[in-house]
Every structure is written in C-alpha cells, then in structure tokens.
Design brief:
Elements: E1 5-13, H1 20-28, E2 37-38, E3 44-48, E4 55-63, E5 66-74, H2 78-88, H3 96-103, H4 109-114, H5 126-135, H6 141-155, E6 159-161, E7 164-166, H7 172-176, H8 180-185, H9 190-204, H10 210-214, H11 218-226, H12 233-243, H13 255-265, H14 272-279, H15 285-298, E8 317-321
Parallel strand pairs: 1-8
Antiparallel strand pairs: 1-5, 2-3, 3-4, 4-5, 6-7
C-alpha cells in the first residue's frame, strides 16, 4: 500500500499564560542543540525518526492562547505526532499553584514574573530522557551539550526537508547497534557508555518502561530507576522531571543548581528545604526557572539555533484543532 504524505496545520489551545520561546529554551537547554531547533522567526522545529517514515513538525505561537502546529509526514502519523508535540511542550499544564507560592518568596518573585509562560517540557520518550540525564551527570552544561550533539550526529543520518537539515534523536535500537569505539570517539566516558547500555537493555527487555513508571508515585519510580547501575538519585530525579513530567521532584545535590540559587537569591538568606516545602507539589518548576536564569545570563533564551539552518514555512493544508 502506498504511503500518503501530506502537510497540514493544526491549532492547539494552551493553558495561559504560555510562551513558546521560554518552553523551548528549557527543553533544548542551549542553542547548539541539533534536535530541537528554534529559528530567528520564533519557530520550533523538530524531526521525529521513530515513525515508519520521518515526520517533521513546525510550531509557532501566533496568539497568546494558541499554538499553530504544522506537520509534514505520512497522513496516518499526524495524530500521534500532534500528541507528541502536546506532551513535549506542556500545553495543558496549569502552574497557578507554583506561581502563587513562588511569588510569596521575595527573591524568587521577580524571576517568576519575568519568566511567566514557561511550561514544563517533557521528552517524547523515556529513552531520550534517560540519555539526556545520564550525559549531563557531573559535567558542565556546555560540555554535556557538545557530547550529546556529537553522539546524535554520529548515529542519526540527517534529514533534508525544505532546505533544512534535521537530526532526529537516535532510537534505542540504533544505539544498541552502534559500536562502543564510535561512541567513545564522540566523548562518551566508559562509565556513562556502560550505564546507557544497561538502560537500553532494560528498555528493550521491557524491564524498564514508561507505563510501569507512570503507575508509581515519584519516590517509588525513582527507586525503580536507581536499580539500574549508574543511575543515582540526581539522575533518577531528572528523568522523572524531564521524562515523566513529575513536578513534585527537585534535583538536589546539583552544584549548578546551587550556584543558580545563590545567584538568584543574592544576599537574601534562605533554607532550600523550606523553599521546596513552600512551593509544594509543583516544586520542580524551580529547576526550570533557575535554568532560565542561567540561560538569560548567557543570552541563550530564545536564541536562534546555531546549526546553520534557514527556516522556510511549510505549505499547510486546511487543518484541525487539537
């Protein structure tokens, strides 16, 4: 049967306030990210390689309460691709509880007001969440981003669409079929490579899967993740936060988080345990706000991706509301 390819635009309602630029900034971390692309025109673009044929999505925020999502790929893949976009960009998350609590903390209030509209992003797969969390263990933001970029480019053949080059995130199957020496050449340490191998084996054997983790409270889900050698408390917490969208967790014992806290709080004394208790079940949003404070200092919020891409608008057919 011949695959039917099409391009269509869909309109997705968001829970206000919403800002695409802030949400993509915390999703991709740095503008050197070659998977999650943000253009000078304010477009978020990503290619998904896990479908039968690659699917490319382009997201813009034309109105405060609506995202326009253009999808190019097999027609049968449009609905699941749109569901991935909704998941990744946190369109339905209501953060009123966090905002109210954070505004009562004097040193945090200005940051929360300035970053109003950021939503918690979520990786499209548990595998991608695990890879990101493991690679960012105990190294600088720039170093980890560089290693991850080289790893993706080594394993993921580029996709060309409308004069734009995309690198889909490599699947767990692609990772398991890639030789160790090639992965070490991109900068992966022996220990992190071994941890990624164990995670890949657990996912492929269905010992570790998103459905079973979703059914567990966060402490138990974290304990399940820590059963894999190489995944400690910090890594498990980041996987829950970025992979499962759990906002009731916060990555403690993180030197960069500690530095960011001191930078944001200035001379105001604070007790982090009291701060987290005050923020309640959405305390994980503090992590994203601290990351945004760091990115703002670097001038990396909303910065166009540096992958040398030239954005072209897709030709959209009449679409649907999501």
């Amino acid at each position: 049967m011949t695959s039917i390819f099409s391009t269509a635009r869909h309109w997705v309602s968001v829970t206000a306030p919403y800002r695409l630029d802030l949400t993509v900034s915390v999703l991709r971390r740095l503008s050197t990210n070659t998977v999650d692309i943000f253009t000078a025109e304010g477009q978020y673009i990503r290619a998904f390689g896990d479908f039968q044929q690659p699917v490319v999505v382009l997201v813009t925020q034309e109105k405060p309460e609506t995202l326009a999502v253009t999808i190019e790929g097999r027609t049968a893949d449009h609905v699941p691709a749109l569901a991935l976009v909704r998941r990744m960009l946190g369109v339905d998350r209501d953060l009123a509880s966090f905002t109210r609590a954070a505004k009562r903390i004097s040193w945090l209030r200005p940051l929360v007001i300035a970053m109003s509209g950021v939503k918690p992003p979520r990786y499209p797969t548990l595998w991608e969440a695990c890879v990101n969390a493991i690679l960012f263990q105990q190294v600088s933001l720039a170093a980890a981003s560089s290693i991850l970029r080289r790893m993706i480019e080594a394993m993921s053949p580029p996709i060309e669409r409308n004069h734009i080059t995309f690198h889909p995130f490599p699947s767990v199957e692609k990772f398991t079929s890639t030789r160790d020496d090639l992965l070490r050449n991109v900068g992966l340490s022996t220990s992190k490579l071994a941890t990624l191998r164990r995670v890949a084996d657990a996912i492929q054997a269905r010992v570790l899967d998103e459905t079973s983790l979703e059914a567990l409270p966060s402490p138990e889900a974290a304990a399940r993740l820590r059963q894999i050698k190489g995944i400690g408390s910090w890594t498990a917490t980041v996987i829950l936060l970025r992979g499962l969208g759990r906002l009731d967790v916060f990555p403690m014992n993180d030197s960069s988080v500690a530095r960011n806290l001191i930078t944001v709080a200035g001379d105001t004394p604070f007790d982090i345990d009291q701060v987290l208790a005050a923020l309640g079940p959405q305390r994980g949003m503090l992590y994203y706000h601290l990351l945004l404070a760091r990115l703002k200092a670097r001038g990396d919020i909303g910065r166009a991706s540096v992958a040398g891409l030239v954005s072209r608008n897709f030709t959209a057919q009449p679409g649907h509301h999501g």
